[in-house]
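Researcher: Please translate sequence to structure tokens.
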Amino acid sequence: MKCEGYRRYGGAFTLGPVKWEQCTNEATVNITFIQDGKEHTLPGCLECWQECIENKLEIKSVNPIIKE
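Model: Translation complete:
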């Protein structure tokens, strides 16, 4: 399963338009978090989970994805 995290490139202090790209890593956890007053649960990788922490998103839970 692919990570559902997105990264922003370009815009503000760089040349060119804002461009969003999906993370290319394999998802290892399901992250439940609050963003814009709404609760979301998405598959994510460890790198995107760390970005959630650094961006101070309210994380409700993190559960490992168990492959059968």
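Researcher: Any highlights?
Model: The chain has one domain: 6-64.
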